[in-house]
Amino acid sequence: MKVLIVLFALGVLLQCQAKQLSRCELVRELRKHGFPENKMRDWVCLVENESSRRTDIVSRPNGDGSRDYGLFQINDRYWCSNTGQPGKDCNVTCKQLLSDDISKAAACAKKIYQRHGFDAWYGWKNKCRGKPLPDISSCKK
Predict the structure, then answer these.
(1) pLDDT at position 120, please?
(2) Of the listed 48, 50, 56, 76, which one is catalytic?
(3) Where is the signal peptide (predicted)?
(4) From 42, 48, 56, 68, active-site residue
């Protein structure tokens, strides 16, 4: 019974480390990490549709068995390693993509964008492309 209580407490503690950003908090973080202003609304739309602005999201398995991690829902098939060692194309562990410090996730998302554009993300393709993008005019520069 004590083991269950400890595991429950640990689970609650780990959940408390997760963060859901407001829209303007997301914009501030993206600006801080050098995302271009002319694509900011696309990035906000992508994040809102992929992870609901949450840093701790891990997707259910995709059709190929892979999973998507973090704010940008970065796939472990190509981009992050599920071992304890950083690896794959972004040279990060998938766990690092779940951090409230989005530095590694942001760098990886930019790398993916450089190679594939926004089309790498189904959330953007299905919910943002050619559609009205989120209003970020109230988010101060």
Answers:
(1) 98
(2) 50
(3) 1-18
(4) 68
Active site residue 119: no
Which among 75, 72, 38 is positioned nearest to 56, based on CA atoms?
A: 72
Q: Under a CB-based contact definition with an 8 Å cutoff, are residues 42 and 125 in contact?
A: no
Contact 73, 125 (CB under 8 A): no
Buried b (16+ CB within 10 A) or exposed e, 42-74: bbbbbbbbbbebebbbbeeeeeeeebbbbbbbb
C-alpha distances in Å from residue 11, one per residue of 7, 8, 48, 131, 134: 6, 5, 25, 38, 33
Q: Is 37 a catalytic residue?
A: no
Amino acid identity at 120: A
Full-model pTM: 0.87
Local mean pLDDT, 10-residue blocks, the chain (141 residues) = 43 58 98 98 98 98 98 98 97 98 98 98 98 97 81
d(CA 90, CA 122): 19
In eight-state DSSP terms, residue 75 is: E
